[in-house]
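In response to a reviewer's request, we include the raw inputs and outputs for one of the modeled complexes. The two entities were modeled together in a single run.
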Amino acid sequence: MRIAVVGSGALGLYYGSLLQRSGNEVHFLLRRDYESIMARGLSVYSLNGDFHLAHINGYRSTHEIREVDLVLICLKTFANEHFQALVTPLVGKNTRILTLQNGLGNEELLAELFGPEKIFGGVAFICAYRGNPGTVHHVSEGKINLGPLQSEQNLGVEIIKDLFTGAGINCRVVSDLKKARWEKLVWNIPFNGTCALLQQPVNAVLAHKGSRDLISAMMSEIITAANAQQLTEKIPFSLAENMVVSSEKLGSYQPSMLIDRIEGRPLELDAIFRVPLTEAYKHGIPMLRVQTLFALLQAAVAG
Amino acid sequence: MRIAVVGSGALGLYYGSLLQRSGNEVHFLLRRDYESIMARGLSVYSLNGDFHLAHINGYRSTHEIREVDLVLICLKTFANEHFQALVTPLVGKNTRILTLQNGLGNEELLAELFGPEKIFGGVAFICAYRGNPGTVHHVSEGKINLGPLQSEQNLGVEIIKDLFTGAGINCRVVSDLKKARWEKLVWNIPFNGTCALLQQPVNAVLAHKGSRDLISAMMSEIITAANAQQLTEKIPFSLAENMVVSSEKLGSYQPSMLIDRIEGRPLELDAIFRVPLTEAYKHGIPMLRVQTLFALLQAAVAG
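The model returned the following structure tokens for the whole complex.
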């Protein structure tokens, strides 16, 4: 399959490299690591085994890539304003677009631009980061939960699932993409937000009773908001405590929003906070603790 | 009158110096600036006129001061655990104790130790800070609202009021000390907390819509909680917007909790957050935004 990877951060480089290794024709839109990857290829250090791809099809512009079968969108969501310019050259009549981005609103924005029948979402559970130029480190998990934006696109999602499974990626199709997105938000909102605001890793915010209890309470707010969204089935409140306990194993893990703050990038506040707060509010759930954290984060990065 | 000032920060030095200048026998418990003040006296730079006191009665221990007519308590509330040791040597049968400290719970703690009939509270509206050793700067306001802990101690509070008025301090007796304390919390909780957490001055947190709206919303939570406390009259919700607007004039003012954080001191979290949250919760008001800010502050200083 002819695939374009738009957004070659850790996520895009990792999944794109697996797709290339399994025999697909993968084209990467590169920015920061262009020179290095074109000269020396890409090294993947993964808990599933390290490998090196000597040759990468790298580009500075998607105009050079042209139409593909699948666009894999791994951009940071604060770059979503560039969707039209970046993605349009890649899209033909039969192109599918899969976004692995964080948070809410990405599929809908792509649907407005390219048509809802083309749009698929994947919720990626993975810890990965970029090391030196031309290297990517995959340190835990890697699973993707996939779903079409429109439930009638079952065939399309199965094709994507087979593609990913064939590349050795643990992957399943979920019946309710919206539910899968909200379930990930139950983790993403409190941990990304609290760690980024306090500039502390996961184990530090869990070590303190005040912030640990706050994280649990925010998780309950988010589950309440999610369950007001007409999901196919309710998210159980026990997910909160399970997530807190399993997060203890993450040690000094830095969520992506903390890394973005440390490295001086914008934060993914719209996708992880603003859109979920708006959707919750539309259904009568104010999520006051989440709102407070959001306001403080906005002021922290504006200041 | 024979007066002991316990806690010679900006507040204690400023009010104590005015009381001494107006002819009272004032004894200061000194710590940080002891050497400097004993050698060169105290210089007050005030918007009401600068003055210098060449001789200050300074002590390292309240045992040297012995019994006084009035104890003026200006300690940071995180030092309240030392009340018994510091204040006991100063208290005789007719001694009155006035706390000008921030937040809730100070009068009650003193009452347990020394008897409620001796205890008076003052809510000070003042911007003052210590400069070089032996100097204090009074930059705005200065008003004190005074009240007895027990309403039957009207005579005592009038005596204190006359003493302060005689020293040129703008001062009035309020009928409901609890209401006065909560009114000050409407400012103190959101501004001290937000500025200390974000390490930004007042104008920075007001410049950003997210944090400005959050401050207003927290003020409304606090007014709701205050009005559940059986006050003699309700606090109007218009106080919130009035306070936000008038705070714009404070410019880059750093609230005391921000200064405490910058200077590496403990924060006054019990008096300004924990006790008010507990009192609010007892009356069925959870103050979720305030609770969130409190949890984040605890984690920020623990981390």
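As requested, we also summarize the result in words. The first strand of chain A starts at residue 2 and ends at 6. The interface with chain B takes residues 194, 197-198, 200, 204-205, 207-208, 210-211, 213-214, 288-289, 291-296, 298-300, 302-303 of chain A (CB under 8 Å).
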